[in-house]
Design brief:
CATH class: Alpha Beta
Strand order of the largest sheet: 1-2-3-4-5-6-7-8
Distance between the termini: 48 Å
Radius of gyration: 20 Å
CATH architecture: Alpha-Beta Barrel
Shape: globular
Low-confidence stretches: none
Strand content: 15-25%
Order of helices and strands: EHEHHEHEHEHEHHEHEHH
Helix content: 40-55%
Largest sheet: 8 strands, parallel, barrel
Structural class: alpha/beta
CATH superfamily: Aldolase class I
Mean pLDDT: 96
Length: about 240
């Protein structure tokens, strides 16, 4: 497998510890992200315990963990606590709470205090601009724009992400992340659009091996898969 030279960095997205440990050795993976939903789906019961297990193993790459409070002051307190878990931690803070209140006041405080942030659940360009206005230029920050979900509404996310990338250019410590990808093509789209990072699940990352695979070979492999699976299932059609 020979991949193109990508400027965009791939971060593995998930919450299964075994997968995280395995993907730490993947040549494309440059960091890790997770969120409370993924952790719940993975059966994580002890939030901090899980995070500390991950950080004990992943020491040389950035890892993002998310606050889950809904009022700004508790979000702030959780963010400070999460940031204390390790020097490679980015604290994920949603762009609003569940009431739609912009989290800007705590983003500004945390960034000023040197907390590396990953501002998540960002969708609009206005949100991107408002987040950037809150950042201390000396503090690293990731702005996670959910390009995959923008595509879900029938809107091409590529021009949207290009505009977001343009907004981030005057902010050298801020990185644009293409969140919630739907297919491997999104990795190459994110790279071309000027994104700094894209999150990729384990299953999606496995498909990277198909890069520039011969289409006739792919066709034959697919036919073989259908034949093998039908045989394994023992399907029969009576032909009279």
């Amino acid at each position: 497998m020979t991949l193109p030279r990508l400027a965009v960095k791939v971060y593995a997205d998930g919450a299964h510890l075994a997968d995280i440990l395995a993907l730490d050795h993947h040549p494309l993976v440059r960091g890790f992200t997770t969120n409370p939903t993924l952790m719940r789906q993975a059966g994580v019961k002890d939030y901090e315990g899980f995070a500390r297990e991950v950080l004990a193993a992943i020491t040389g790459k950035p890892v993002s963990f998310e606050v889950f409070a809904d009022d700004l002051e508790t979000m702030y307190a959780q963010a400070r606590r999460i940031a204390s878990w390790g020097p490679n931690v980015y604290v994920k803070v949603p762009v609003t709470n569940t009431l739609g209140e912009f989290t800007g006041p705590i983003l500004e405080r945390l960034s000023r205090e040197g907390v590396s942030l990953n501002v998540t659940a960002v969708f609009t360009l206005d949100q991107v601009s408002r987040v950037l206005d809150c950042l201390d230029p000396a503090t690293p920050c990731i702005v996670s724009v959910f390009a995959g979900r923008i595509a879900d509404i029938g809107q091409d996310p590529v021009p949207h992400m290009q505009q977001a990338a343009a907004l981030l250019r005057p902010h050298p410590r801020a990185q644009l992340l293409w969140a919630s990808p739907r297919e491997v093509l999104n990795i190459y789209q994110a790279d071309a659009a000027g994104c700094d990072i894209i999150t990729v699940t384990k299953d999606l990352l496995a498909k990277v091996e198909f890069y520039q695979k011969d289409l006739l070979d792919f066709s034959l492999d697919t036919v073989k898969m259908f034949y093998r699976d039908a045989a394994s299932a023992g399907y029969r059609i009576e032909l009279g």
